[in-house]
Specification:
Elements: E1 8-15, H1 22-33, E2 39-46, H2 53-63, E3 67-72, H3 78-88, E4 93-96, H4 108-116, E5 122-129, H5 135-152, E6 159-166, H6 167-175, H7 183-190, E7 194-200, H8 213-227, H9 230-258, H10 266-299, E8 306-310
Parallel strand pairs: 1-2, 1-4, 2-3, 5-7
Antiparallel strand pairs: 3-8, 4-6, 5-6
């Protein structure tokens, strides 16, 4: 057992094909955690890596008793890997972070301090600067977060998955049963008291990001459809607008015909058909995305499957 001055902290780190950076991450994290005087466990979630990431986790657990590892049966995605980590975590608070050192471990003592003083139930690391990133990537991220804010009401701009969650927040998060998950949005939806810590995204120590433009696109679609139904109302609003326009255009056409003038506008008819056809297909596509979400939810398949586990976790500081 631990006393209040030495709480237990779980650190959850999902990894995918990151074997080259594991040792450096563990070394830096351990050096930081020695300063905090807390009992901690480090839980790696191997999200179906194709390299020797799992073997690397095994070597680390043999050297460090505080490290645990879970190996998923295949690549389920980062959101599912985070779910596995939160389910496995046993600490009074849980820290979620990446293992490529872009989330600086040096921020952890301050996060624990804010939480231990009772100032917040969720301590969020907010990106003050996104690091070395192209102008297109910055524009893409800004567009996504603004769209999410307008559609769902949650302002997540600058937010990251680097967070500390109190145990009661973790337990409430685990009660959320949806299969299509967006960690940042779900934490915001839960409420509780939040505190924000700015940080600068560090350069990756090894490897490259596994997030392609295509994966990011579907992450954005999943996030928006998970937290907003406004896109569903798009077809209704557009239909009403086009109905009003059709009435006005019909009235104008009848007036011209009644005046004895020829009714022209072949080009206008073609353009209207193209616009309406595109609108119909877009509306069907939006509805299809929500139907697909319903389809995945009603099947109630598990969010993840654990293939192997290694290590025990928790040591004295």
């Amino acid at each position: 057992m631990t006393d209040a001055s030495h709480p237990r902290i779980s650190i959850v780190v999902p990894v995918f094909n990151e074997s080259r950076g594991l040792a450096a991450f563990v070394t830096e994290l351990h050096a930081v955690m020695r300063q905090t005087q807390v009992h901690y466990e480090l839980i790696f979630i191997d999200d179906g890596s194709a390299d020797d990431t799992w073997q690397g986790i095994g070597r680390i657990t043999a050297e460090r008793a505080e490290v645990r590892g879970l190996r998923l049966s295949r690549n389920f995605g980062k959101e599912a890997a985070l779910s596995a980590g939160l389910d496995a975590a046993r600490g009074a608070a849980v820290i979620v972070m990446d293992g490529d050192l872009q989330h600086p471990p040096s921020l952890i003592p301050e996060m624990i301090g804010i939480w231990s003083r009772g100032e917040a139930d969720v301590v969020e690391a907010v990106k003050q600067h996104r690091g070395q990133e192209s102008a297109f990537s910055r524009l893409r991220a800004k567009a996504f977060y603004r769209a999410l804010r307008y559609l769902s009401g949650f302002d997540l701009e600058g937010m990251s998955d680097f967070k500390l969650l109190d145990r009661k927040v973790v337990e409430e998060w685990r009660r959320l049963e949806e299969r299509n998950r967006f960690f940042r949005g779900m934490v915001a939806w839960l409420g509780f008291r939040h505190a924000k810590l700015p940080f600068v995204v560090q350069d990756r120590t090894t490897g490259e990001s596994g997030w392609s433009l295509w994966k990011l696109f579907w992450l954005a679609i999943g996030a928006i459809t998970s937290f907003s139904t406004l896109p569903l109302h798009f077809s209704t609003i557009s239909g009403v607008a086009f109905a009003v326009a059709a009435v006005l255009l019909g009235a104008q056409t009848f007036y011209v015909w009644a005046s004895g003038e020829a009714v022209a506008g072949f080009t206008t008819v073609i353009l209207l058909l193209l616009i309406i056809g595109s609108l119909v297909l877009l509306s069907v596509g939006v509805i299809g995305e929500y139907v697909a979400r319903i389809y995945h939810e009603v099947k109630r398949r598990p969010t993840y499957i654990v293939r192997d586990s290694v290590g025990t976790g928790f040591t004295e500081p």
